[in-house]
Amino acid sequence: MEILVQVLGPIEVTDTEGRPVAVGSRRRREVLGRLVAAGGRAVPLAVLVGDLWEDPPPTAAGTVRTFVGELRRALEPDRLPRTRSRVIDTVGTGYALRIPRTHVDAHRFEDALRAARDAPGGRVAGALGEALSWWQGEPYADLDASPWLEPERARLTELHRQAVELRARAALDLGHGASLVPELEAFAATHPWREHAWALLSRALYQAGRQVDALASLRAARTRLLDRFGLASVDGLDHLERDILQHAPHLTAAPRAEDRLRLLTRTEATGTYTRLRSMSTVAGAAAVTGGTNLVLAQEQRAAAVAEAERTADPDLTARVIAAYDVPTVWTRADDPVRSASLVATTRRTLHRLGPGAPPALRARLLATCGLEHRGTRDRWAAEAAAEAERLARELHDPGVLALALNARFVQSFQHPGRTGERDGIADELIALSTRHDLPAFEILGHLIKIQVCAARGDAETSQRHITAAERLATVHETPLVHVLTAAARTMRLAETANDPAEAAHAYRTLATDLAGAGMPGMKAGFLPLALLSLRLRHRRPAPTDPGLDWGPHRPWAQPLLDLARGNLAAARHAAATLPTPPADHLYDALWAVSAHTALLLHDASLATQAHDALSPLRGEIAGGATAMITFGPVDDILSALEQQLARR
């Protein structure tokens, strides 16, 4: 019997014919709901116990096992005794729900929303209208509040709001605003703090031929935002009011509905300085949402900077460059050519401005050099980051200091063994951002902490920062963060799961999420490297699936791929020509791969090189700095290398 699970409302289970399946008491439904919230990942028994009881009784573990057994019998009435469950799988000491994502309404809704973000404009409204119809009330409505449930409810509720807004925007782009007015009036009244809600309502009123009501709605929204949240001016509402007064063409059917960002619309009529700086500013605001927005935002920033430099005005160029204020957590550029061009422009601009440039502007440009020229061992890039930090501290400017600390973070990978330095940077970023309301950099601080904890094998502290990052991401609408925290959880699963197949499945799911995150510098070659880490830790040959794209990691994997195919000569040749890993997040991971190659080939020269490279990382986890993959403790790898070298 196949089952369908609904959690967008009270928890309900039916078969594919719509007949209800009784799953029992509230506690049993909570266990089922907790497994649904895990998204197919295993939930350890200890976690289930902690989630079900604030003060667990001595019998709690046995009770959970009983609940799971009863759920299995309810969901698989035809399963023979003592045969493995196909619905609730035992994974190590925990359990994982094994049903297709299309059979869980919450998962189906998330996938529909993700697909709609990248779909042609004409199909978005219909697709999201259907997806929103699956909601029957508050998620997990029949469960009491609990520490695991509240963040999950908040996450799903935020996705619902985003879907409502995205569907409305798509319908407005098609000129269907009149029919949306009642729905958007209720939505804006229920969510008065969401600027987008008021903007959508006003545009719908305009399309309904109610220009006066549209303007009145905007002015009322501005008053509410000022009275309740202290927002003296909300640019989005100001621009929309101007556009309504001028009967701007884009307020009706959009001529380019596929360009979801539509970043230039509001600045085309302004002067060059305002237009170009706005292009960069709005691109920065869009970039933190990830996905297609991030890709388009980076393209728009590059276009704005290039056009600014063509004006031959170094001050304008500098301010356009500096207006893009987006944190960077990964040391491989998404587009190396574009990054190199931006760095070249920034360095030329610094030279043209000379030493008399305003210190804050100079610091931002230096930080940009440090941020964009990452993953190298070029001393001048590290010096640029250090100079930016010095200027920022002298200025006592928290925004500039946060950017400079970010630059110092990415440059810290020039040399191994600087986890402690990154830990200190993260602490300062969190404290600084909390004091001065810099949420994007506060999130960055927590993400760096997650990486530090992963490198040190500190799962407990990592979980606290994962929770904090996800809370901030939900409030400030930065969904990319959830992909990165899912990566940290997957790495933890890889460390603890007895069955590598479970971790491999989780990595494949994560790779799918990364594919839509708009970060090719992180995605490229990730999945095969992650699968290789599992294979090596479980003493299995490298994965030779021809469908795996190793991307930039192929040179280091090639000897192991040759060995897996039985070609010893090719493996030795590939090992003899291995390059030095880049100075980035994957430095120790790639050296761990080379260490395994040296051990399997009994290659003393490569073993010595790997030993020297990994020695500064004693006490850490190889690959842990990524908070994504693990090749196990560095000490274990060093010990194996030392033993082999001692035998020669």
Protein architecture, described:
The chain is mainly α. It has four domains: 1-147, Winged helix-like DNA-binding domain superfamily/Winged helix DNA-binding domain (Arc Repressor Mutant, subunit A); 175-253, Tetratricopeptide repeat domain (Serine Threonine Protein Phosphatase 5, Tetratricopeptide repeat); 265-487, Serine Threonine Protein Phosphatase 5, Tetratricopeptide repeat, CATH 1.25.40; 497-646. Helix content is 63%, strand content 3%. The chain contains 29 helices and five strands. It has helices at residues 26-37, 45-52, 60-75, 105-117, 121-132, 149-173, 181-190, 195-207, 211-229, 235-245, 272-287, 291-310, 314-322, 336-353, 359-372, 379-395, 398-411, 419-436, 439-456, 459-475, 480-496, 500-515, 520-523, 526-537, 554-564, 568-576, 587-601, 604-614, 634-646; strands at residues 3-6, 12-15, 43-44, 88-91, 94-97. It has a three-stranded antiparallel sheet. A hairpin with a 5-residue loop joins strand 1 (3-6) and strand 2. Helix 16 (379-395) packs antiparallel against helix 17 (398-411), helix 17 packs antiparallel against helix 18 (419-436) and helix 20 runs antiparallel to helix 21 (480-496). The termini are far apart. Mean pLDDT is 88; it is low at 254-269.
